[in-house]
Design brief:
384 residues, mainly alpha, MetI-like fold, 2 domains, three-stranded antiparallel sheet, 14 helices, 58% helix, 6% strand
């Protein structure tokens, strides 16, 4: 370029270049730890978050639920036996089934005979029974069918009384017994899971870390226990011990830790030869410290996930034992014993089974969904 032309360029355009820091490799977002990534992944999983809310709600109701009305779980009154659910305000919505009535269909040769059958079924209290004839679509004239609605609370003089989810065969409030039973089931499940966690992690960690003869001896113990069906062991323990919370926890804890110990042993065998473990050994760190500070934290994810799947299994097993009469024995309540009572009265009083079944189903599904969410959260491949 000609120097004369360069002199003609306005000085305002000749701005010195300011050197700036190279930002081509600068991180666009703050760095996060593994636990922060796991937390972020878990809380972005909407089904898992909703399940956590359901679990917390059920735990809260198991604590505060029995205090939410004026009835105690041991208040027996045969005059109010098997009362259907009745809830203020909701009693005005007929399709919810919370209006304190029992509805059944009766069939006979004529409408009069069907009506007589309904009145006899409900204690000959005709003034409290509403009868509605059902027209058959096939036009059959050889039989008649009616729908009878029995106003139980009015018939028993309990017009201003409300049992939110009904009463059982002895007239005890089902709401109170449901949440007391849920509390018992949760206590059994959490205590059994904690014992399984402590024994399983310790046994599996020691077996996998030391290896050799120690591992061989400890695994022979596991193989002996695995060879005996867990149900047989539990049933034998329940026959020796008195039925109750303590006996169920002991029975569940005898073999419940085996699955956890195998998982922990496998993980420890995989990571015990990593560089940071060898460096700790070289520096003279005690074996117990290595297990506690290096190995267990690095397998904490799989431990938490397995524990979350252990809890619903314990809840279901307690319900199974109580259902077959080897668990919680009346007058004490648990979800299993309440389901057993409801099953015996399923055809005539389904509400005795419906509500305990809903609670135990919600717990089982919620814990499994949370377990799946934790599995994804602790999997680095799922982090975004």
């Amino acid at each position: 370029m000609d120097k004369n032309n360069l002199k003609k360029v306005p000085k305002e355009l000749l701005v010195p270049l300011v050197r700036k820091e190279d930002t081509s490799e600068k991180l666009s977002s703050p760095s996060r730890t593994f636990m922060q990534d796991a937390k972020r992944t878990l809380f972005s999983n909407k089904p898992a978050v909703f399940s956590i809310f359901i679990i917390l709600l059920i735990i809260l109701l198991s604590i505060a639920g029995p205090w939410m009305n004026k009835f105690n779980s041991d208040d027996q009154d045969l005059s109010r036996s098997k009362m259907p659910p009745r809830v203020p305000v909701l009693e005005n919505i007929s399709w919810l089934g919370m209006n304190g009535t029992i509805k059944s269909n009766f069939e006979a040769d004529t409408v009069e005979k069907a009506t007589t059958k309904a009145i006899a079924r409900y204690g000959n209290k005709e003034e409290f029974i509403d009868i509605k004839e059902i027209e058959k679509g096939d036009g059959s004239k050889n039989s008649a069918e009616i729908k009878a609605t029995y106003h139980v609370y009015d018939a028993k003089g309990l017009k201003d009384t409300y049992f939110w989810i009904g009463t059982d065969t002895l007239g005890r409030d089902q709401w109170t017994r449901l949440w007391e039973g849920t509390r018992v089931s949760l206590i059994i499940a959490f205590v059994a899971a904690i014992i399984d966690l402590m024994v399983g992690v310790s046994f599996g960690g020691i077996s996998g870390f030391y290896g050799g003869k120690v591992d061989n001896m400890m695994q022979r113990v596991v193989e002996v226990l695995v060879g005996i069906p867990s149900l047989v062991i539990i049933l034998l323990m329940m026959m020796v011990l008195e039925p109750g919370i303590v006996s169920i926890i002991i029975a569940l804890s005898i073999t419940g830790w085996i699955g956890m110990s195998r998982i922990v042993r496998g993980e420890v065998l995989k990571i015990k030869n990593q560089e940071y473990v060898l460096a700790s050994r070289t520096l003279g760190t005690p074996n117990g410290t290595i297990i506690r500070r290096h190995l267990v934290p690095n397998i904490s994810g799989i431990i938490i996930i397995n524990t979350m799947f252990t809890i619903p299994g314990a809840i279901f097993f307690e319900a199974f034992l109580s259902f077959i009469g080897l668990g919680i024995v009346p007058p004490d309540a648990s979800l299993g014993s309440l389901i057993d009572l409801g099953f015996d009265n399923l055809r005539l009083y389904p509400f005795l089974l419906v509500y305990p079944a809903i609670v135990i189903s919600a717990l089982m599904i919620a814990f499994n969904i949370v377990g799946d969410g934790l599995r994804d959260a602790f999997d680095p491949k799922m982090h975004k």
